[in-house]
Amino acid sequence: MVNVPSKLRAHGCAQDTCKNYYFTCQQCDKRYTKKGNLKVHIRVHAGETPYTCTQCGKGFYQQGSFIVHMRIHSGEKSYFTCQQCGSSFTQKGSLKVHMRIHTGESSFTCQQCGKCFIQKGGLKSHMCVHTGEKPYNCKLCGKSFTHKRSLNSHIKIHTGESSFTCKLCEKSFSRKESVKKHMNIHTGVKPYVCYQCGKSFTQKPTLSTHMRGHTGEKPYTCNLCGKSFSQKGNLTIHMRIHTGEKPFPPGSAPSTDSIRLPGCRFRPAPRFLSC
Predict the structure, then answer these.
(1) Which residues form the C2H2-type domain (predicted)?
(2) Sheet of 2-3, strand order
(3) Cα separation values, 228 from 117, 160, 208, 217, 231, Å
């Protein structure tokens, strides 16, 4: 329902806009200075998408979004180009957000770890790291993911789109870039170097985890006792204290002699003899 302030009608404003009063959405309290903008916004709650692409069937509640989408099919070139790196965008707002990369502007900051993001969506996605939330679920196997891109890559396993396979271990990937990064494990190439201590790694996520040792960042927080950890695996192990989970039945836990990790060598502990 459109909430038109009675004072707006009382003071004789003949237009559907006024600088001193707002049109408020009854469902989310979002306010607009123009009645037409509120009507368009209401479509979000109603699920109304009056603008439908005849080529792919995708629907839009705004005409502007529909026009921008049609450029994908028509092959029409982007209009907004970054003067610093040459990247092009179909929307002026997208270019504006992109410019923050060059200016160093980070408008959205995580209150828990201080990490900054140039987009609100990036911060929202990052917060799942702290909360442990995995909002993206695979409808085929039930597995859940923190990020939508991770779910999209996972779905390709079911659809058979994982067409890029490692020739050495036959592991499949949905993206060619992922295979290239994976090959670092076999070749021993370590392109990711810590600028503080010089240590190098085969994978970027491993470097990110290592950097937390220098920064002291602990993004994984227990929602029951508030204790924080630098690695997700440590939080998972910690949670067993609260849940009482015992991953190994009594007497079946593997001994340290039977555990071998890639790249690790185990040496027997020194024995001290008493005099």
Answers:
(1) 23-50, 51-78, 80-107, 108-135, 136-163, 164-191, 192-219, 220-247
(2) 2-3, 23-25, 31-32
(3) 21, 38, 17, 9, 9
CATH number of 1-76: 3.30.160.60
Which one, of 242, 208, 205, 245, lies nearest residue 222 by Cα? 242
CA 83/CA 86 separation, integer angstroms: 6
Q: What is the pLDDT of residues 232-257, one digit of tens each?
A: 888 888 988 888 877 666 665 555 44
Options 3.40.228.10, 3.30.160.60, 3.90.1150.10, 3.40.50.300; CATH for 145-187 is 3.30.160.60
Per-residue pLDDT tens over the stretch 130-164: 887 888 888 888 888 887 878 887 887 777 765 67
Q: What is the pTM of this model?
A: 0.36
**Residue 84 has which token pair?**
């610093």
Give the Cα separation of 108 and 100 in Å (integer): 11
Residue with tokens 């995995």: 134
